[in-house]
Amino acid sequence: MQDRLKFAAVGGGLVALLGIALGIGALVGGPAEQAPDHSAMPHTGQDAATGLSNAQSGYAISDVTAPAEPNQAGSLQFRITGPDGAPVTRFTTQHDKKLHLIVVRSDTTGYRHLHPTMDDAGTWSIEWSWAAPGTYRIFADFVPETSGAGPGDLVLSRTVTVSGAAVPQPLPPPTRRATVDGYQVTLAGDLGTAGSELRFTIARDGLPVSDLEPYLGAYAHLVALRAGDLAYLHVHPQGEVGRTPAGPEVSFHAQAPSAGAYRLYLDFAHGRSVHTAEFTVEVESSTVPSTSGSHSHPGGDR
């Protein structure tokens, strides 16, 4: 998870979770969700390698099991299988964790960035309940540990359907300012062109926050999801903990794979808690390159 962007389009499988259904409740992932391995395809555009499938480079994410209804306590579980079909049990630590789990509803609400635990058999699990019905995309972001040249950072996904009458929320209008937990976060820069820089300035009660706390090995993390299909991008900030000022500004180099509306989620730690500021931005077609040359590697980066 170097400071490179990582894109995994959610609609077709932001990366497929698990091949064996375990657990509580009902979920998805059948033949219809088995998208082709995009890593083997020629890059005809940046979306050609955005991790939109539940399998890549021989690795796959199994069906996900979780509670079937909102407000029902249970466990969310899945496995990652390798080229030999067996569960993967060895992962490279990236930003303090073996695997990063991103969950979001299809309308971009309900965003969560969490870290499940893995048992000896390779099953990842975390205590879970859903706040609302709807269809959710489950992203697994990881690097398998291999003895030789491995596939690098992978993002696989599956969808989970939570029963009930879902009420889709409209995408909030574009904004350059967000308020969360008493913090004010201001966005400068754009998400379009190659080498684009996004700069977030964090304040609290009108005063700049210059003592951000390290979170997963960095002062902040940024996830972008494309409205509609949830194409996924994850980048880490410029600089280094202990050497870069701990705020109030955190900057990222990021580039969208296509034009459209994107929802940004900025995770940062302060006051011994993690906070998430959310923004909507529009990317114009004139700012998006026609090739994937800026993509640091298939499936994105952590």
Commentary on this structure:
This protein has one helix at 10-13, and strands at residues 7-8, 55-56, 59-61, 74-81, 99-105, 112-114, 117-118, 123-128, 134-142, 154-162, 177-180, 183-189, 197-204, 207-208, 221-226, 232-235, 249-253, 260-270, 273-283. It has 302 residues and is mainly β. Strands 1-16-15-18-19 form a 5-stranded antiparallel beta sheet, with no helix packed on it. Strands 2-3-4-8-7 form a 5-stranded antiparallel beta sheet, with no helix packed on it. A hairpin with a 5-residue loop joins β15 (221-226) and β16 (232-235). The model is unreliable at 1-49 and 291-302 (pLDDT under 50).
Structural topology:
Elements: E1 7-8, H1 10-13, E2 55-56, E3 59-61, E4 74-81, E5 99-105, E6 112-114, E7 117-118, E8 123-128, E9 134-142, E10 154-162, E11 177-180, E12 183-189, E13 197-204, E14 207-208, E15 221-226, E16 232-235, E17 249-253, E18 260-270, E19 273-283
Antiparallel strand pairs: 1-16, 2-3, 3-4, 4-8, 5-6, 5-9, 7-8, 9-10, 11-12, 12-13, 13-14, 13-17, 15-16, 15-18, 18-19
List keywords for this structure.
302 residues, mainly beta, five-stranded antiparallel sheet, 1 helix, disordered N terminus, disordered C terminus
- Tally the helices: 1
Uncertain parts = 1-49, 291-302
Order of helices and strands: EHEEEEEEEEEEEEEEEEEE
Please give the number of β-strands. 19
Shape: globular
N→C terminal distance: 3 Å
What Rg is obtained from the alpha carbons, in whole angstroms? 18 Å
Record the strand order, biggest sheet: 1-16-15-18-19
Residue fraction in strands: 35-45%
Proportion in helices = under 10%
Secondary structure category: mainly beta
